Amino acid sequence: MLDKNGIAKRIAKELKDGFYVNLGIGIPTLVANYIPEGINVVLQSENGLLGMGPFPIEGQEDPDLINAGKQTITTLPGSSIFDSALSFGMIRSQKIDLTILGAMEVSEHGDIANWKIPGKMVKGMGGAMDLVASAKNIIVAMQHVNKAGESKLLPKCSLPLTGVNCIKKVVTELAVLDILPEGGFQLLERAPGVSVDYIKQATAGRLIAPEDTPEMKFD
């Protein structure tokens, strides 16, 4: 079973050389720390930054440099800082090759709910709706089950939706799964030490899970 850093490290393997990548709030921000050697990607933050680096070393934080989640970050040589209007222009014109988002729920049809729990105060949706409406490819980084042990991979989302039929892949502490065009989760990899049966029990949505599904590799 993976921790949050393990999820981020596995997702980093999905990065391709030359990609422009948007990292959502939460687990996705950790991907910046695990970009594979020899891969050149440009990280974009919707609050107005292109060329984001890894998280700063403790004591070297610059409070003026933050990502969309208000975490302090670093910049790389050649980075650019600009207003949010230009940033959202990049997103809406589909200049982003890959978007990595967190989620509260994902349905077997690729729907995502990641911004609101009814009855709880939230500041707003942020850039999530623009990202899911415009992104060419979206991977979700999330926990497979909630604190009560209930599946977050569902036949249908119960929370307010951010986007419909837009998620391509999900990486959790238990597994890597594709969303099938006809609906359903396709198990591609399982976390080290996690059995296929355990993943089946933790997945409420329709799941295709071959018994010979390999464990994740990070090399």
UniProtKB/TrEMBL annotation:
Molecular functions per Gene Ontology: CoA-transferase activity
InterPro entries in the record: 3-oxoacid_CoA-transf_B (IPR012791), CoA_trans_fam_I (IPR004165), CoA_transf_AS (IPR004164), NagB/RpiA_transferase-like (IPR037171)
Keywords assigned: Transferase
Keyword Transferase: yes
Descriptive protein name: Succinyl-CoA--3-ketoacid-CoA transferase
Keyword Cell cycle attributed: no
Xref: Gene3D superfamilies: Glutaconate Coenzyme A-transferase
Species of origin: Pedobacter quisquiliarum
Family: Belongs to the 3-oxoacid CoA-transferase subunit B family.
